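Weekly sync notes, structure subgroup
Attendees: PM, AL, DS (notes)

Item 1: joint prediction request from the bench team. They want all two components modeled as one assembly rather than separately. Inputs as received:
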Amino acid sequence: AQSVTQPDIHITVSEGASLELRCNYSYGATPYLFWYVQSPGQGLQLLLKYFSGDTLVQGIKGFEAEFKRSQSSFNLRKPSVHWSDAAEYFCAVAPLRGGYNKLIFGAGTRLAVHP
Amino acid sequence: DAGVTQSPTHLIKTRGQQVTLRCSPKSGHDTVSWYQQALGQGPQFIFQYYEEEERQRGNFPDRFSGHQFPNYSSELNVNALLLGDSALYLCASSLSRDGYSNQPQHFGDGTRLSIL
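Output from the run, pasted for the record:
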């Protein structure tokens, strides 16, 4: 069955520290991969996406993610976290073709940022 | 350029009632998907509409139904509401090419549905 695992439910970092949020997926083939961010009471904002090509993708707000096929992982990173980055982060996958872009989400990682 | 808009923002219903949620897609998008996000969980796919037809459905009962209008806007209907239907309902839109929707989905801010 297709699934997405985000092993860390809650992460706390200090402002200015680096960040890595983990994401592993289980899928028959390499899917499309996404990271979304959700602030309290709001919808989801797309941070970045991987469809093909360079395995290191750049997104908005200084985020990047690296696709590693051998590990079925798509971890999100940021070199220096800002207080405004506190939010919930969701990793998602969608079929490469034929699946009409149905998104399968992980359970999310809640990020807290200490001043 | 308006993004995805959903109405209402909040709704309170009682068990057994019926509810209709509405969504207007981002300008230029023709595909609408609906997701249910229970508290503390990731969104779960309900169904997707394209060309006014449901073309894919997640693991939700028939109490959940929808509609897409010629202007691409969409409605989500839930009948015989249960306490477990309390959740944030998210609408997402995208553009389909050649019948497939391989473009990123843009989400609205959701409708918070509370069942008493």
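Discussion: The CA atoms of residues 36 and 48 of chain B lie 12 Å apart.
Action: AL to compare against the crosslinking data before next sync.
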